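anyone else get weird line breaks when pasting these?? whatever heres mine. first is seq + tokens for prot A
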Amino acid sequence: MKSKENGNQTANTPLPQRKVWGMDFIRRNLFSRFDRYIIAKFLGTYFFSIVLIISIAVVFDFSENSDKFTMNHAPMDALLKYYLNFVPFYTNLFSALFVFIAVIFFTSKLAENSEIIAMMSTGISFGRLLRPYLLSSALIAVISFYLGSDVIPRGSVKRIEFELHYKSRKQPKIAEHLQLQVDTGVIAYLDYYDGDRKVGNRFTLDKFQNKSLVSHLTAQRIQYDTLADERYHWKLYDVKIRTLQGLREQITTESYIDSVIIMEPRDFFAVENQQQALTNSELLDYIERQRLRGSGNIKVFQVEYNKRYADPFAAFILSTIGLCLSFRKRKGGMGGSLGIGLALSAAYIMLQTVSSTFAINSNWPPILAAWMPNILFTGIALVLYRRSLR
């Protein structure tokens, strides 16, 4: 009888419910009302600061360069496209600064209104308070990386072209006596190249195997095919090819041939800020080609490539520092926290510039130059975080 009652009791006892890792669980545990409130404040202030500061930057840039635009007869559609690419470039460039300002501004406002005191009185720890800040930073970091690695470089092509044509007027158009290694054991020489017409004269292409010349091509005229589907497509005119096999020599002539030669017109000109107009895959391709050619001017491109991975992480670091500086209620209001935040932002940007300059002009590894500001400011963030926990 006893065992029967125990059996009935066991049968009637409800089984413990298992956690379901679905959207409802994520919404209740990862994005609670508290998280959504902080994230909305964070992102709202972040985008508001972007609109405010970038609008001022556009007005100042236009007023400063309006005489150049008028003198150089900049068309209105080109001017509009320039500023459509100007805005995302500088927004992403100073994204870390906008994150810092946004965190300090709205967190100081919450502290001034005693909202953070009310949150912590309910048992919310400082680590729990930090979580929605990091979630917001993760969203900003993902967007920043995607824009900086693919979208913005494509727009920077038009932005840089506009600046060269209508602002600086320093675009190189003529190149002479060019020699470069276009492939393993393949040396190209171009006597004269016109950048406007994309036409060159007196071109030679020498191929070596085991330090011996096996092929020598000459063309009186060479033209880059801008309409071809593939890159590196060239048209060669009045071609003469000498093929060497030991003591034998075979000569062939052609009036015209299509050829794929791994070089582009931009390889002939050193354009300022050219690295900004290359996507991540194009940057890697360019670095490998320049390394193959033995060029020593690739550190600028290596630093740019590593910075595109390092810069998005600044959102996590600077949002943590901003929270640690501004979550306490101060007598002087947010002025002190905002001043410290702006000073640290200026120090971060200056450190980025200094480390990049050292890498380009000295023997610093490019990856160290790109990550040095993040490494130092991570140390500052950890110190401030431990102090805030106490």
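and prot B, same format (seq, then tokens)
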Amino acid sequence: MTYVPNTTAEQSEMLRAVGARSIEDLLAPIPKAVRLPRALKLPAALSEPDLKRLMTGMAELNADLDHYASFLGAGSYDHVVPSVVPHLAKRSEFYTSYTPYQPEVSQGMLQVIYEFQTLVCQITGMDVANASLYDGSTAVVEGALLAVGPGGRGEVVVSRALDPQYRATLRTYAHARGFTLREVGLADGVTSLDDLESALGPETRAVIVQQPNFFGALEDVRAIERLTHTTKALFIVAITEPASLGVLAPPGSYGADLVAAEGQSLGNPIGFGGPALGLLASRTDYVRRLPGRLVGRTVDEAGETGYVLTLQTREQHIRRERATSNICTNQALLALFTTIYLAALGKRGFHDVGALCLRKAHYAQSRISAVPGFAPLFARPFFDEFAVRTPLPAEQVNAQLREQGIIGGYELGRDYPELGEALLFCVTEARTRDDIDNLVSALEEIVSQ
């Protein structure tokens, strides 16, 4: 792009201060091949009402979940969010709150984070939870880093049924930190226990599996725990769909050392890849090795309840070059959404959400499997996601579904080409019986053409 130097006295002074004669001098390090050699072709300025009409029209070109029935999961899930959640979370005293380093003026936010940690422990069955991380993938990474320790050496064994994006994030960190990743193969859509047993060795620091896994199938987590703990490795359970914890056994009940999860399902809206919220919980043994911060409850000199930052043991601003994590913040607003959501539902409501997901998904799978050419990919128990083989290219099926106002399943061939043409469908409590029946009718029409 060509810039015309600004000749105002203020900007000229700024340029002189950095040793430049013009804006072009500042851009000199940028190769000319990637610079636009002309001025931007911008339309004339618009009045505020005209600009609003223009932007509204452009926004309406996007698909949204108000007009499409979505059966897409694979890490982000369309759940019903009670109106009380955004109503309370968007109050200005919460919405504008920042990192609570000064407890004397941050009691409200500190209490929210404390309640968030408590709720995460209750649904996961773990002893302690931190104040949140960026997303599920970085939570899994932080679990792996905790396992390999400050030296960053050893081997982390990962199931191939772990979310592909999580595995990609792990590979990036493994390359930088120096530990080794070993993937374990699959047997009928779940982790192969024989391959896992063969992969374990004296250098194994952690075993990471997802429950339910990326295909929605339920892993034999108790058998995996027994195999893992025959070594000194940590058993890390990743969860991308925490709504499953309303009906499935919590990881703490089957021997998990760490739980790394994505919290988007818990009261947070679904968007173009976000926002996301990382959950990380552990047994008490590892409390001082957790990243981020932990909020605790205490009493002041007058005996009144107060909340404080209890631990910040691994953060860069505390340990500087000795830090083993760069997590120096928390997703406080999203953690607030999760806290209000879980508190509003309560134990019974949380269970009911999980039960609805379970029943509706199984109804959908039975109906879709009856469509000619569609068949279950795996014969495994599942929660609210299931994989099916398609008689036509998965991309073509999805394209035709979109024409009928339906967002189809995830195309598994993107990450698992060996599976052939297959779709991963997700059905949450947000989908109605009519939504499911309309999907089945659309699939029948597609295959009959």
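btw re prot B: Residues 84-342 form a domain with the Aspartate Aminotransferase; domain 2 fold (CATH 3.40.640.10). The chain has three domains: 1-39, 69-79+346-448, 84-342.
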